[in-house]
Structures are given as structure tokens and as C-alpha cells.
Amino acid sequence: MQRFLHQFRTLSPTQQRYVLGAAGGAGLLLSLGLTLWVAGAFGGGDDEAQVACSPCPTSTRTAKPTTSPSPSASATATPCCPETPGATFAPTAPPETQPPAPPPETAAPGPVSYTLAPFLQSGAFDRIVDFAVIPGTNNAEAIAVAQKAERILRVSLTGAFAPAVYGDLSDRVGGGGNEEGLLSATFSPDFLNDGRIYVYYTQGGDAGKPTVLSRFQASASSMDTNTETRLLDVPDFASNHNGGRLLFGPDGYLYLSTGDGGGAGDPQRSGQDTNILRGKVLRLNVTGQARYTIPPDNPFAGGGGAPEIFAYGLRNPWRYSFDRATGALWLGDVGQNSFEEVDIIVRGGNYGWSCYEGFAPFNQQQACPPSEALQFPRAVYGTHDGGSCAVTGGYVYRGGAMPELNGQYIFADYCSGRIWTLDSDNPSAQPVILLESGQQISSFYELPDGELIVLTFSDTIFVLKHG
After folding, report:
1. Judging by DSSP bridges, how do beta strands 141-146 and 329-333 pair with one another?
2. pTM (two decimals)
């Protein structure tokens, strides 16, 4: 606690007023004093102490956000987060600026109510963390990624058949940590011609094994698990903070979000180290390649850092997405103990961890860049506000069923099940609560028609709709 009080005293009066205002006064000082107490998914809990260093993303920023939103040290226990009244959001100006006037009230998207309606339900659904429509099936079939069952299921979106195993990877996927397992999968944009599927997972066996990005051959009905080509190993040292999502961007490149490697407080300073792959968003050219090549405009393609890096300074970027209308990359970065972040990722951007958590200084006892060189969050909320614990990044809504939500970034908290909207067109807008779902929300997925489904740790996959 003394170290955090010392850091606070070194701030200018303006910065002190900013930090106190952003965190609800003394609330930040309290949360800083409790840095080793992190409730829930992706953030802390017992997993934070598991820094059994050995080889150096199992649960932090190495090559999704690898693992699912980790609620606690137990893979099945529901995280317990203290109740506090209402969520608090910090202003969106960098901390070096004068504190802004109180943000104007952001109006709710419309005078209607919303609900999560069952979309698919099956006893085979167990900790579903990712989803993707299978190309060539007329949008009638999809895969669902089961984190701890370590397999990919094939599901019918029309009810034509019960879920079936698409690919069983339990012979190579593993890890007992809550944030370990099968984390993400995505199809090649040229799947009908190349039959490629990409998978991100943590390995079984001894702790400290690298997190793996691999490619397999597949058809619409199954994947051939004997055709694995390991494209990238991300060195790791703990069970948590693996990040974990794979998506192809509108530029045709494959993106992977990685965590800082685990433990509490970024013990190996992964976030700011541009020579390692943890705590980053990576971008690779895989289409038509035996493994991968580096996109020529990656920020370190010419040197000065690992050439795979697209953006850095992240803690545990579990879920992100691309706005289908603008191409913007929106990401939810799970916080340490004080702030959950919503970030807009740009090429070469430094998002501050672990020099900053949200807008607040975190560990300044390292080579930290000036604040004007950082990309601060688009929005934050308190890690423990109202039973919250870990942000689950979502999508900018572009569907037709709820036109009043067009352009709203929709995201959630894993522990509280709270779903917010954030106006993507208004930089000064603040998040607005859309729905209290009561679900453990692990991820979102955008269907071809632009509607959003919501993945949970229950036996049900939901669709967001009018209530």
C-alpha cells in the first residue's frame, strides 16, 4: 500500500483530482491497496499467484486471448465479486490533460427493452468460448469451441441435427488453470479452396509450455486432427493471462490477441517489451503460406521489435472484433484490480500496461513512455463495480432487427452478466447499461446478418433481441 500511496503523491494536483474523480474518490486508493485480490475471470484470483516461472500465453498476453474469461482458480467455481452500487466510468481524456467537465449524460439507445433469448441449447455445451459459421453451409452450420472439453463441436443453426464432434484436440490441449484450454478457432477466408482452420490453445503437461497457434485441414463436416501445422509458439510462464482470440481482419490478415503471461502486475514486464509476443495483438499473413509471413506495414516489420506485433501494452485481451462497417478493431482488455478497458486498436499503438491500468498510473518503476505517446482507453469501468470482474469484448452492432442500436459497441462483464452499449460514433459518449443478463458471458459472435449471439458457460447460447 505504501508504494501506491507514494506513486499517488508524486502526481500533480491536477492528476490527483483526475484519478480520484475517475475512481470515485477513495475507491481507487482502496483498490490499489488490494492489488493481489482479484476476483474472477481473466483478472486475478488464485491464478494470479501462480507465477511458477520456467520457460517463458497461457493466461496473459502472449499469442485471446488464450483461455476463456477466467472466473477464479477453479474451472467450475463461479467467481465471487463484492457488490458495490452501480458502475463508475472514467472520462476518456489522457491523464496528463486538464480534468474534463463532467461528461454529458449519454442517452439510452431507444425506448425499448432487450433480452437474451435462447438460440441453441444442448447438454454438450460446456464452457463455450468461441463460435464461427462454417463456410459453404449456406449459413446453416457452425462450430462451437468448448474450452475445457478441448474439442470443437459442429452445430446446426436450423435444428437439423444435434451437436456433433467436429474435431477432438484433447490429446494435445490441456492445462488445469481456469484460463487454459482450447481458446479460439477461425476459418480461412479462402476456406472453400484451401480447407484451412486455425486454432489457438494451451498445452497439457508441465507448466510453462508455450501457447500454440496451429493450422489444420478441414471440411464442412469435420477437421483432420492429424494434419496439424504449428505456426507459432508463444512463450509462457504461468497458467493465466493467455489472451486468446483468432480472427481474420478486413485486410485478409490473421490477428491473435495474447496476454502478458500471467501472475499479478506483469512480473516479467511483458506489456511494454516489444521484443516478446506476450501482451500484444499480433498480425500474420497466413493465406497461401506454408507457415506465415510478416505484413510489410506491421510496425516492427523493419526492426526494433518482434515483427509479428501489431499493437502492444495489453494485459489480457480476451475478446476483440472488427466493425464490419468501418473496419475498426474494438477490444476488451481485462484489468488487474481497478479498471476494465474498452480499447480501439490501431497499428503500432501502445496501450500502456503495465505503466498504466486504465487511465491510472500502475507501475511507473520501469521504462514508461510519456503519456502522450500512449493510446488510452475509449472507456473503462471499475473491476469490482456491481459484482463485475472481467470485461468481455463484443461487437459494433450492424444488424437490422434493432435499428436503434446501429453503431453501438455492445460488450459485457463476465461475472456480473451486465451488457453495455457505447456509441462508436461519439468519442465523448459513455457506456450505457443495456441489460442485466445474469449470465456468465464468455464471448460474442456476429452472425452473417449482423445479429449478435452471446456465448455463456451454461448449456445455452443466446441471441440478443428486443425484450
Report:
1. unpaired
2. 0.81
Closest C-alpha among 353, 42, 24 to residue 178:
42
One-letter amino acid at 71 equals P
Return the SS3 of 404: helix
Domains of the chain: 2-466 (2.120.10.30)
For residues 295 and 263, the answer to whether their CB atoms sit within 8 Å is: no
Q: How far is CA 45 from CA 41, 74, 241, 363, in A?
A: 8, 9, 12, 20
Provide the Cα torsion 315, 316, 320, 326; round to 10°.
0
Q: What is the distance in angstroms between the CA of the first residue and the CA of the last residue of the chain?
A: 46
- Amino acid occupying residue 203: Q
Task: State the DSSP H helix or E strand holding residue 254, giving kind and residue range, or none if neither.
Answer: strand 254-257
- Give the model confidence (pLDDT) of 336-394 as tens digits: 999 999 999 999 999 999 999 999 999 999 999 999 999 999 999 999 999 999 999 99
Backbone angles phi, psi at 348, to 5 degrees: 80, 5
List all residues 6 or more positions away from 287 whose beta carbon is below 8 Å from its beta carbon: 188, 189, 190, 194, 252
Residue 78, C-beta contacts closer than 8 angstroms, at least 6 positions apart: 71, 72, 440
Using the 8-state DSSP alphabet, how is residue 268 labeled? T
User: pLDDT tens across 26-40, in order?
Assistant: 333 333 343 333 333
Instruction: Fill in the DSSP letter of residue 57.
Output: -
All cell numbers assigned to 43: 483478472
**Which residues lie closer than 8 Å to 223 by C-beta, 6 or more apart?**
152, 166, 167, 197, 216, 217
Instruction: Give the relative orientation of helices 2-9 and 26-33 as an angle to the nearest 10 degrees.
Output: 140
State the Cα–Cα distance between residues 213 and 290, nearest whole angstrom.
14
Contact 371/94 with Cβ under 8 angstroms? yes
What tens digit of pLDDT does each residue of 77-126 get? 333 333 333 444 444 444 444 334 445 556 667 668 999 999 999 999 99
Closest CA relative to residue 213, chosen from 239, 171, 183:
183
Residues 111, 408, 189: CA angle, nearest 5 degrees: 140
Alpha-carbon separation of residue 394 from 83, 86, 160, 168 (angstroms): 24, 21, 28, 27
- What DSSP designation does 45 have? G
CA 423 to chain centroid:
19
Burial 383-412 (b: 16+ CB within 10 A, else e): bbbbbbbbbbbbbbbbbeebeebbbbbbbb
**Nearest-angstrom CA–CA distance, 156 and 142:** 7
Distance CA 16, CA 440 (A): 35
